[in-house]
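ok trying this again, last paste got cut off
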Amino acid sequence: MAGSTTAERGERQQESSGPPPVRRLKPPELRTIIIFAVALVLLGAGSVWLLYGSNWLRVERVAVSGTRVLTPAQVREAADVPVGSPLISVDTDAIEARLRRKLPRIDAVDAVRSWPHGIGLKVTERTPVLLVQKGRNFVEVDDEGVRFATVSQAPKGVPALELTLSQPDSRAASLRRFGEDRLVREAVRVAGAVPAAVARDTRAVKVRSYDDISLELIDGRTVAWGSGEQGAAKSRTLTALMKAAPGARHFDVSVPTAPASSGS
């Protein structure tokens, strides 16, 4: 009788030996678990104490940047940052809201924590594009039509806004239909569309009605602009018209496809 083959002997040996034993991980000892839990509790308690209870992370200074007309002292006073409080507990959103409410000249502000002891206030002030005379003072109007500050001296290079309607009935009708705020925004819209070279020489933006806005330049020349619509086209047309008629005194771009100039 022939002996078993090598393959058969290997199969019998594998069957007899069975699958390899599974190695089981020993569960962590109770002492290890307790030590780990205590360490976590101590770490958490230490972090809370460091942030809220220690003197290492408290507000000691308030830095202000970005001011032009306002002073850093004015901003700090209005911000009313709780110096001495834990830095982590300072409500930066409340500081920003307080500054915008107390100082309308501020257009945007970013209050940030500056670890380990500071609060930083980055301010962006509104820029006047028009002035409304009020008695002996001037009300500054920004590029959104917001009247944000009253000053005793007119800033240089900022044109006046004049609601000067020659016909009272027309003025009343325009105010009833659009409201004064809307007319002011249209004037701002025109001021923003005027070519830079003309804007530098503009003394006043005059509003007679929604679609009757004109410019008066410092040398006495005038520009009939019309409404605030088609500002880019009117700007290009005015630039070309002034080059073509440098001696003219009156320019009309209220209909940019049919401009006109007159006077000398």
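PB: full thing came through this time. Residues 122 and 136 are 33 Å apart (CA to CA).
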